[in-house]
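> example.struct
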């Protein structure tokens, strides 16, 4: 009975949270790291189930805790950073359109508190806001010509 409860907790609580956050990590990291999160989640969960099956309960719990602490905090922290940067970028987009209404042209310069992770460029009668969380190879952008987009590595 204890094994069934343990496996149920893993399969219906721990693993879904880890896999969900691993899937969301594509927004802040590159696809290789995202794949590593998926692989790590599955391997550590399988290892914990195998250890528990052979009555290595303490080791099984340690593997689960290690996997949980490896994946969850990293993804929660950087997803919060992603939300902050996206929110700030949306404000920049709103500001650019507001300035265009006032002065008939998009502003040419932006000074932001996230200088290194948000890039604002103007080209003729359009603008682009690009932001990234960890790597500039994986980022999100807004173009006044095409709207929001995602650039993967």
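> example.seq
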């Amino acid at each position: 009975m204890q094994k069934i409860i343990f496996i149920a907790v893993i399969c219906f609580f721990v693993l879904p949270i880890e896999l969900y956050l691993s899937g969301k990590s594509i927004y802040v990291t590159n696809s290789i790291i995202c794949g590593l999160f998926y692989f790590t989640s599955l391997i550590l969960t399988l290892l914990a189930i195998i250890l528990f099956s052979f009555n290595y309960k303490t080791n099984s719990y340690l593997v689960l805790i290690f996997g949980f602490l490896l994946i969850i905090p990293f993804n929660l922290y950087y997803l919060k950073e992603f939300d902050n940067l996206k929110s700030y970028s949306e404000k920049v987009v709103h500001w650019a359109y507001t300035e265009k209404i006032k002065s008939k042209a998009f502003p040419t310069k932006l000074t932001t508190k996230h200088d290194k992770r948000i890039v604002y460029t103007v080209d003729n009668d359009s603008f682009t806001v690009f932001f990234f969380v960890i790597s500039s190879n994986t980022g999100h952008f807004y173009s006044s010509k095409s709207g929001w987009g995602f650039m993967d590595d």
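> remarks
The beta strands are 118-123, 126-131, 139-143, 147-151.
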